[in-house]
Amino acid sequence: MSGTRLRGLRGWIGAAATAGLLCWVVFGWLVPGFTAPEGIRASVAAVAADAVPSVPTAADAAATVTVTPATPAPAADQSAAGSSLASTGETALLTGNAALVDADWAARVAAATGIPRRAMLGYAGASLALAAEQPGCRLGWSTLAGLGNIESGHGTHAGSVLGTDGTARPGIFGPALDGSDFAAMSDTDGGAWDGSAAWDRAVGPLQFIPATWQRWGADGNRDGVDDPQQIDDAALAAGRYLCNYGDLALPDRWRAAVFAYNHVDSYVTAVAGYANTYAARAK
């Protein structure tokens, strides 16, 4: 990476080919001919044009990347047995971290940001769970939303949709890491998560490589299964990974955490841009 200047969002794939990453970017604007969904298209254009003109040096990025803390999601009324989405015609009962979030707040912020409601519940639920589990981390939901936008368009890559249970259908998979176009990563999961017993590929709305999921996989919806295709599980796992870098309210710790997720400075800048946009729209 030293001395290389990458232009725009497409540079992340070329850079990723030389690094062992937690995740793999697959969302549509890295795929020729794909158009971002209505509702997030304007924010995609703004970041592509303004926030990611080139890869900054490490010193520049550390000095300039600042994330405005998002207003924390309010907790749901826990006197009820669970929360439902009946008001939108979705009757599935929410369990686990998604049930921690006030449903009215989630609906309002989803409308304001263009983030699908079920993804919003996953990000905010993980943030609330981690606030109790690791209070010194101070991870905002908007950071997870920034990652989710870049990694899979909040679970919408290639026509996928997050169901009311939070699972991406059809499943979201990155390219086979077979060494032809990207760095070779031999199979580590027997195809259990990525469907390939020959080569690894990243999985789910937050694009975990199987070996990383084996270490960091989480059960955010409390169904007894760690599933990288399920947004509550994936968001909690991503949050725990990021929180491993300390107090994320500190700019240098936040940058180190997001850089660890994908070792490209322009990626860090873009996540910050989305996180700040979401935080501002949620006010």
UniProtKB/TrEMBL annotation:
<dbReference type="InterPro" id="IPR043426">
    <property type="entry name" value="MltB-like"/>
</dbReference>
<protein>
    <submittedName>
        <fullName>Murein transglycosylase</fullName>
    </submittedName>
</protein>
<dbReference type="InterPro" id="IPR023346">
    <property type="entry name" value="Lysozyme-like_dom_sf"/>
</dbReference>
<keyword id="KW-1133">Transmembrane helix</keyword>
<keyword id="KW-0812">Transmembrane</keyword>
<keyword id="KW-0472">Membrane</keyword>
<feature type="transmembrane region" description="Helical">
    <location>
        <begin position="12"/>
        <end position="31"/>
    </location>
</feature>
